[in-house]
Amino acid sequence: MNSVFTKIINGELPAYKIAENDKFLAFLDVNPNAKGHTLCIPKQEINKIFDMNEDLYLELMQFSRKIAIALEKA
To answer: What is the pTM assigned to this prediction?
Structure first.
């Protein structure tokens, strides 16, 4: 069963994409807690964040950091 995130990745649901590469996607939250609230997700379907292998987890954190820095500048 596809999650809502998988549907966003596949283009089945709309999203305002901030950044994307071959492994990750960053997009604005549909129900933001603050202006610019962005979600960064792996494109690989994973049930829980700590189910990711350590390398992918660290790559996601590096990707998220780049997005956060760019959002602060904007």
So the answer is: 0.88
Exposure string of 21-40, with b = 16+ CB inside 10 Å and e = fewer, is eeebbbbeeeeeeeeeebbb
Tens of pLDDT along the chain (74 residues) come to 578 999 999 999 999 999 999 999 999 988 888 888 999 999 998 888 899 999 999 999 999 999 999 998 88
Name the token pair of 48.
Answer: 């829980």
Alpha-carbon distances of 11 from 8, 35, 59, rounded to whole Å: 5, 24, 23
**Displacement of CA 44 from its chain's centroid (Å):** 11
Q: Which two tokens stand for residue 27?
A: 């997009």
Give the chain's radius of gyration (CA, Å).
Answer: 12
